[in-house]
Amino acid sequence: xxxxxxxxxxxxxxxFNDQFFSFQPDKGAVPPKMSFAVKVNYNPxxxxxxxxxxxxxxxESGNQISLNLKGHSKxxxxxxxxxxxxxxxxxx
Length: 92
Prior knowledge:
This protein is mostly beta strands. The chain has one domain (3-72). The protein has no helices and six strands. Strands 3-1-5-6 form a four-stranded antiparallel β-sheet, with no helix packed on it. It is elongated, with a radius of gyration of 22 Å. The mean pLDDT is 81.
């Protein structure tokens, strides 16, 4: 008999309502004696963000596993080439 599961954020977890973590899939069924991969994505809405969220992976049978996820987004390294600057048409 397959084990049906869902992954959901724990109630009252964190100060933000935004979901920076997502799961693919977040629900499904695992056949007996098989393994199953779940992809976890971290997509924060801003840079230099540290996130700690708690989720439950719960089976319909009542078994559950706590998932404690940490994420950190780093700043981007951006530079500009100033060897050439176009001012457009300039009246002299």
